[in-house]
Amino acid sequence: MSVRGWSPEWFLTLCELGSMSATADALGVPQSTLSRRLQRLEYDVGTSLFDRAAGGLRINSRGEVLREHLSKANAELVAGVEAVRRISDPDRGTIRFDFLHSLSTWLMPRLVRGHLSRRPGVEFVLHQGPGVELSERVAAGISDIAIATPRPTDPDLDFVLLASERQGLAVPRDHRLATRRRIRLAEVADEPFATLLPGYGTRQVFDELCDEGGFTPRIVFEAGEIPTAGGLVSAGLALAVVPLGYPSMKPEGTVIVPLQTRIRREIGVVRNIRAAPNPPVEEFWTHVTSEAPSLLGETEIAHF
């Protein structure tokens, strides 16, 4: 059923004031217009909502039922409008920001903290995961911005390269190659490896390095995070390919030897070019693209 010619505002004001003329004055509309709105509403609901009296209008039991529901609806409408205004306000908006596991302890906090120092009213919704998943979340509209890898192939996704990441081999401190300045992965082709699960950018790089070395690795453990793989190295159970220079990527009792290869992992920031304009997100995008390259450059990984 359609209900014509009404809005929560005028009906709730009429209920409060109990006077057609006073309500018309309060809303700045002609009294005749307001009278026609009430007539159409009562016709559509099929009953009267006010009792007419000499002193004005008195809401009846049927009108009370409608007022109760419209009060709730109006509150939701006000909340909805406020929510839309909030996400469009650079000072108060919500930013859905995704990032790689390997960036969760240092790069993500520094980017978020730097942005909040200028926009303290902004809210962040954060998510970490493997690179391919993060790009898919941006494409699906679940997230606004992601720092991800590898470079996405979806034409709707904008990708700005932040760093080309060098890799190293994590070995136990007493390993035969621990003192080398650099090595090729093929030199340890017969040793066990711990690596990440398929779908992670680091796993993709590991597979490419093995292909380059011409061997099939003996994988003894597939982890969800790089530090877990590093823990197996520390225990002397495996070797692991890890990024160079990350503050959290050097497990106790291990040495990371740079790999001699041109293979790199591209880290970039991703957004959906078809997403509706959103000032808070656009401002944070500018912050990330301007600040992240220099922050990554403070480590050993950023070699373009």
Automatic annotation (TrEMBL):
Domain of life: Bacteria
Sequence ranges assigned to domain HTH lysR-type in this UniProt record: 11-60
InterPro entries: LysR_HTH_N, LysR_subst-bd, WH-like_DNA-bd_sf, WH_DNA-bd_sf
PROSITE patterns, per database record: HTH_LYSR (PS50931)
A GO term for molecular function: DNA binding
Gene Ontology CC, one term: protein-DNA complex
Transmembrane stretches, start-end: none
Keywords: Activator, DNA-binding, Transcription, Transcription regulation
PANTHER family with a match to the protein in the record: HTH-TYPE TRANSCRIPTIONAL REGULATOR CYNR, TRANSCRIPTIONAL DUAL REGULATOR HCAR-RELATED
Protein family membership: Belongs to the LysR transcriptional regulatory family.
Name listed for the protein in its UniProt record: Putative HTH-type transcriptional regulator YybE
Taxonomic source organism: Dietzia timorensis
Lineage: Bacteria, Bacillati, Actinomycetota, Actinomycetes, Mycobacteriales
